[in-house]
Each structure stands twice: as C-alpha cells, then as structure tokens.
C-alpha cells in the first residue's frame, strides 16, 4: 500500500502583529470531525495575500507537487489569495492534481460541481470588489480636487476626527484578524485612517508591522 496523503490545514494572516489562532480553532474543529483526522498537517504564514511566494504556502505546494496532499482546507478563500486570475489558476491546478479544496467560511468544497461554480464566482467577486474600491478612491480624490481640497499638511501620525471608541473597535478587530474593509464598515472611517490607527497602535506596542520571513514586493 502507498503512503497515506495528508490533509493540509492552511492559515494566513497579513502581519506579524496578528495571529492565526482564530482561524486554527475552526480548522482544527473541522479536522477532528473527519475520519482521517490524524493525517492533518498545519502550514502557516504571516504574509501578504498579494503574492503566492510565502514560506508556508511554498512548503505546502511542494508537498502537492510530490503527490502527498489529498486536500487543502482554509478558513476563508481570501487566505489563499486576493486576485481572480491567481485563484482561478490555483483551482485548475488543484483539480488537475486531484487535490480537493475546502473553505469553511465560504461553505466551499471543490470536489462538488456546486463548489467549483461557487469558487469561481467568489474569485470574480473578490476581483470586482477590489476594482470598485479603487474606482471609488479615484473618484473621491477627483471630487475633492475639484472642490479645491488638498492632502497633506498634518503632522505625521496625527489622527483627525477619530474617537476613542472607534480606536477601540479597530484594535479589537485587528486583534481578531479582521480586515481593513470590515473595520471601515464598522467604524465609518476611511481605510487610510484605519491603517494609521493600526500603525500608531503597533508603534505604541513597539511591534513593527512587518512580514518577517516573507519576500518583500
């Protein structure tokens, strides 16, 4: 008999100040419910999702290429990547290698026809949302310029019109690995302001926002 293939549990966060515990709790719970739970193996990254060039993912994919992986399980699809083209290519490669993909929060299972349809829809939606956000930023900047508004002039690190409650919400959501978009929706703040709050919080903790071990791009 051949060697049993592993079930790869993959978790990713974008910065060193975040951790993968919230993702792993759900992933481990799912794994324990499987009859071959003993075959599970963790692969973790603290890197941006813009590139697939990450240490943990590289190790996982090397195992896939060696034919040692039966399935990859993630907390949410955006833990794998953020572009439609990259995700769609990954789906095709996994199917060609007979490796299943399960995304818990998306309710996605690439082994089923419905799962394959959902996977491509979700990838397209992610790409659409990225493009729409970029268009809104450009439109907002154009409108501001037309109104005679300019950027700059504030002291570096200064937060304008931000309440302590908003800062507290951002801090809690950042600790829970929520993304900037969710933070912006919850607080009504802009994404640049969200980033500034996070930067100030990290600076006060003396914990730099870096992707240690990840290639810089």
Describe the structure.
The protein has helices at 21-32, 55-65, 84-96, 113-146, 164-175, 180-187, 191-205; strands spanning 6-13, 40-46, 69-74, 100-103, 108-109. It has 217 residues and is α/β, with parallel strands linked by helices. It has a five-stranded mixed beta sheet, with helices on both faces. Helix 3 (84-96) packs antiparallel against helix 4 (113-146). The longest helix has 34 residues, at 113-146. Mean pLDDT is 79; it is low at 206-212.
Q: What is the compact description of this entry?
A:
It is built from 7 helices and 5 strands; from the N terminus they run βαβαβαββαααα. It is α/β, with parallel strands linked by helices.
What's the tally of helices? 7
The fraction of residues in strands falls at: 5-15%
Tell me the span between the first and last alpha carbons: 44 Å
Q: In order across it, which strands form the biggest sheet?
A: 2-1-3-4-5
């Amino acid at each position: 008999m051949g060697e049993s293939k592993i079930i790869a549990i993959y978790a990713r966060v974008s910065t060193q100040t975040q951790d993968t515990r919230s993702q792993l709790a759900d992933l481990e719970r799912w794994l324990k419910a499987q009859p071959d739970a003993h075959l599970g193996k963790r692969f973790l990254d603290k890197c941006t999702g813009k590139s697939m060039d990450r240490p943990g993912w590289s190790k996982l994919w090397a195992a896939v290429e060696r034919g040692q992986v039966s399935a990859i399980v993630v907390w949410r699809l955006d833990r794998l990547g953020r572009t439609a083209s990259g995700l769609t290519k990954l789906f095709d490669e996994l199917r060609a290698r007979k490796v299943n993909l399960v995304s818990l929060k998306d309710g996605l299972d690439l082994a089923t026809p419905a799962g394959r349809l959902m996977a491509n829809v979700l990838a397209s939606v992610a790409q659409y949302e990225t493009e729409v956000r970029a268009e809104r930023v450009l439109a907002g900047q154009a409108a501001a310029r037309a109104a005679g508004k300019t950027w700059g002039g504030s002291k570096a690190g200064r937060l304008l019109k931000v309440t302590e409650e908003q800062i507290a919400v951002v801090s809690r959501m950042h600790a829970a690995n929520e993304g900037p978009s969710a933070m912006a929706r919850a607080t009504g703040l802009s994404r640049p302001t969200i980033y500034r709050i996070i930067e100030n919080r990290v600076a006060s903790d003396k914990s730099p926002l870096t992707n240690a071990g990840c290639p810089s791009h």
